[in-house]
Amino acid sequence: MIHEIISTKTFPPVLLLFGAEDFLVEHDARRLYEAAAALDATGMNCDVLDGEQTSLDAVLSIARSYPMMSEQRVIWVRRAEKMSASKGKKSSDNLAQYLNSPNATTFLLFTASLPSADGIGSRITRNAAAANKKISSLKYPFPLLIQKASWSEYPQVKELQAMQWLQRRASEDNIVLPNAAPEYFIARCGTSLRDLSMELEKLKLFLGDREHATEDDVHAVVGSSREFNVFELQKAIGRTDISAAMNIATSMMTSDSQELPIIAMLSRFFLQLYRLIDARTLGDSTAISQQTGIPTWTLNEHLDYVDRLGPTRIERALHLLRESERTIKSTSTPALLVIQTLLSRILDSK
Predict the structure, then answer these.
(1) Could you tell me which residues are beta bridge partners of residue 75?
(2) Which of 308, 288, 307 is nearest to 299 (CA)?
(3) Which residue from 315, 241, 253, 331 is spatially nearest to 278, judged by alpha carbons?
(4) What pLDDT shows up at residue 178?
(5) H or E segment and range at residue 14
(6) Can you tell me the distance from the alpha carbon of 262 to that of 233, in angstroms, rounded to the nearest whole number?
(7) Residue 273 in contact with residue 314, Cβ under 8 Å?
(8) Residues forming beta bridges with residue 47, ordered by sequence position
(9) φ, ψ for residue 190, nearest 5 deg
């Protein structure tokens, strides 16, 4: 929707953007505002307001006014959830009246953080009645905005989506990432696009005039040892190299307390391999990637891991990982011993 609005320069009279992925909300709102503001040669008809410092009635008053020496007025209300808006009869009627007959020369954009509205977009298609109940429970004026204005929700991205976004963003910045980099970024930073964007910006500054980033570059910027990290540990396990796996895990544990992150990442790794056992029959790499969460550019490597480990060890590993996590959390057994025992049992060929 956003791309179409910008490309056609046909801005809806009122638009609400919200969702858990606040980085995308902010990113698309800025794109919309800048595209609309570019149509005002005077610069006198563009306002960015903070919801904490304004009221709904004040916003509507500006929205109703006609632009000066321009065809359009642009108003962006950030943090709209903090906007004072009493649900009195007068205020409610004021907004309802405006939404029923908005000023055709105004583009009114609201951005908001609405945790209680998470999932509304997908829920509407699955269960309209439940979605409407959820909408009606929102803080005023958002039920009215969602019912009568254009809106778009930005749900929290999943791991594979975050990796794909990172690749696209890197490409836009003329950065060529090594194959394992997106997964490594996610492991260190999580799926927050704001955090990933910051790390990618640091990498860009680190590279200077270079376009091709190496694994050493990524490790230098994002952190962790080049030789001893969870991805090298996964590779060693995938190759069934017990000696290398023990060495990497021991080095990681010696430098820092990483037992729970190790178990979390290995659980994710083996769950992907478990899904891949059946998904590989799909044939199409894109379909396999979507079903397993494994990026297409590392599929061949993961398929090799499945062949080397075999279904029995992969399934056993998932049980052993859960057991090891319980042991670490509920006993005084040294964490290093738990991890070493875990690796030994996972890679046992029996």
Answers:
(1) 47, 108
(2) 288
(3) 315
(4) 85
(5) strand 14-18
(6) 9
(7) yes
(8) 75
(9) 85, -170
pLDDT reading at 76 higher than 90: yes
For the stretch 299-318, pLDDT in tens is: 889 999 999 999 999 999 99
pLDDT of residue 100: 93
Question: What is the identity of the amino acid at 79?
Answer: R
Alpha carbons 22 and 19: distance in angstroms, whole number: 6
| DSSP 8-state secondary structure symbol assigned to residue 75 | E
User: What's the rounded Cα separation, in Å, for the pair 245 and 342?
Assistant: 11
Q: How far apart are CA 328 and CA 315, in angstroms?
A: 21
The 3-state secondary structure of the chain, one letter per residue? CHHHHHHHCCCCCEEEEECCCHHHHHHHHHHHHHHHHCCCCCCCCEEEEEHHHCEHHHHHHHHHCCCCCCCCEEEEEECHHHCECCCCHHHHHHHHHHHHCCCCCEEEEEEECCHHHCCHHHHHHHCHHHHHHHHHCCCCCHHHHHHHCEEEECCCCCHHHHHHHHHHHHHHCCCECCCCHHHHHHHHHCCCHHHHHHHHHHHHHHHCCCCECCHHHHHHHHCCCCCCCHHHHHHHHHCCCHHHHHHHHHHHHHHCCCHHHHHHHHHHHHHHHHHHHHHHHHCCHHHHHHHHCCCHHHHHHHHHHHHHHHHHHHHHHHHHHHHHHHHHHHCCCCHHHHHHHHHHHHCCCC
Distances, alpha carbon 37 to alpha carbons 32, 107, 201, in Å: 8, 10, 27
Residue 222: what residue type?
Answer: V
What percent of the chain has a predicted confidence (pLDDT) above 90?
47
- The pLDDT value recorded for residue 252 is 81
Residue in the structure block whose two tokens are 């799909």: 282
User: Angle at which helices 230-238 and 242-255 pack, to 10 degrees?
Assistant: 160
Residues whose CB is less than 8 angstroms from the CB of residue 125 and which lie 6 or more positions away in sequence, other chains included? none
Distance CA 128, CA 115 (A): 19
What domains are there in the chain, each with its CATH number? 2-153 (3.40.50.300), 159-222 (1.10.8.60), 230-346 (1.20.272.10)
- Is the predicted pLDDT of residue 91 greater than 80, yes or no? no
